[in-house]
Amino acid sequence: VKLRTLQKNSEGQSSEFEGTSTHVDLPVVEKGEIFSQ
Predict the structure, then answer these.
(1) Contact, 9 vs 30, CB < 8 A?
(2) Per residue in 1-37, pLDDT tens?
C-alpha cells in the first residue's frame, strides 16, 4: 500500500506540478512513513 500510494501521488502530482514535485514529495514521504508505522 505504501508503494502504491507513493507512486499514485508521484504520478498525479508530477503531471500537475512538475516544478513543485520536490516540495510535494517531502510531505508524501512523511505520510507514507506514518501509515507504515
Answers:
(1) no
(2) 555 666 565 555 545 555 554 555 555 656 566 566 5
**Domain spans of the chain, in order of start:** 2-36
What is the C-alpha separation between 14 and 36, in angstroms, rounded?
23
- Residues 19, 2: Cα–Cα separation, whole Å: 24
For residues 8 and 28, the answer to whether their CB atoms sit within 8 Å is no
Q: Are 11 and 34 in contact (CB under 8 A)?
A: no
Cell 512523511 belongs to 30
Question: One-letter amino acid identity for 32?
Answer: G
